[in-house]
TrEMBL record:
Source domain of life: Bacteria
Protein name: DsrE family protein
Keyword annotations from UniProtKB, A to Z: Signal
InterPro entries: DsrEFH-like, Sulphur_relay_DsrE/F-like
Species: Congregibacter variabilis
Lineage: Bacteria, Pseudomonadati, Pseudomonadota, Gammaproteobacteria, Cellvibrionales
Family annotation (Pfam families): DsrE
Keyword Flavoprotein annotated: no
Length: 176
């Protein structure tokens, strides 16, 4: 019991010495992509070299929930916002969204979606920052999705696996 009390006291002293612990309220959607892509400032982090270049492939399989923005699309926006806040311009951030599985619904135009697709605005913004939106052709065939059903700028590929292999050969790192 005494040991637990000492550990608790040490933890409280540590928190008091370093300020309150961070929480969800420390994440904000400020940045280039307003309203999307929350991130937290980390003042203690070592600065990134100005010539840093990112090439990130994000696997997008979950999603397709009616009325919801895909969380991986929001993470892509947050990654751009975070790097920009740390001195890396968006021209040095290459992101490829590799979409398959239930997430395919998030790529559908309003007609194919069956109403307003809440992902359309964010995907248009991301594409303005040169984010590639790559859709698995195998998934398209399985779900009877034609190119005419997709939002503008979505590129149909042979398969998600093929796309990931090709992106890795081009120097992209996978963010699962």
């Amino acid at each position: 019991m005494m040991k637990r009390c000492l550990l608790a006291a040490a933890f409280i002293a540590l928190v008091a010495a370093h300020g309150a612990m961070a929480g969800p309220e420390d994440f904000h959607p400020d940045g280039l992509i307003k309203g999307y892509g929350k991130f937290a400032d980390v003042p203690a982090a070592k600065p990134l070299p100005a010539d840093t270049r990112f090439k990130v492939a994000m696997d997008v399989v979950d999603g397709g929930v009616t009325g919801e923005v895909n969380s991986i699309f929001a993470i892509a926006a947050g990654f751009i916002n975070l790097q920009h806040a740390n001195g890396i311009p968006p021209e040095q951030v290459d992101i490829a969204l590799v979409v398959h599985g239930p997430a395919h619904r998030d790529l559908l135009n309003d007609k194919a979606y069956g109403g307003d697709n809440p992902n359309a605005e964010l995907l248009e913004i991301l594409q303005a920052y040169n984010v590639k939106v790559l859709y698995c052709g195998q998934n398209a065939v399985k779900n009877d999705v034609a190119a005419k059903d997709l939002l503008p700028g979505v590129e149909m590929t042979h398969s998600a696996t093929t796309t990931h292999v090709l992106l890795q050969q081009q120097g992209y790192s996978l963010r699962p």
